[in-house]
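Worked example

This section walks through a single chain of length 120. The input is the sequence exactly as stored; nothing has been trimmed or padded.
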Amino acid sequence: MSIKRIVPDITSDCMADSQKFYTEFLGMQLAMDMGWIQTFVSPQNQTAQITLLQSTGQAVPNPNLSIEVEDVDSAHAKAVEMGYPIVYPLTDEPWGVRRFFVSDPNGQIINVMCHLKSRG
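Given that input, the structure is written out below as tokens.
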């Protein structure tokens, strides 16, 4: 499996305070802001990233980690074949990613995804 990046996902009940922490204290730049999700990057190292996810209270849990892969369909097939619990189905999201959530042996929710424009 070809992994492109790994980003920790932090569920937040205080998005504005968290944004201030990551931008003003740590000096990261806000690279993506969809209101309920924000991704921050280091200006010196674009692969150093953190994502904040607004606490939803919905049945689908927020992931703890996002892993961007070259081929999300193959990753999904392998997870199913190996019997790992899929907690969010393989889905094309309206914001341009194809993803699924899988639970690791520790109960951590992993968002395995790729950008739709990069699929080929």
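What to look for: The longest helix spans residues 15-25.
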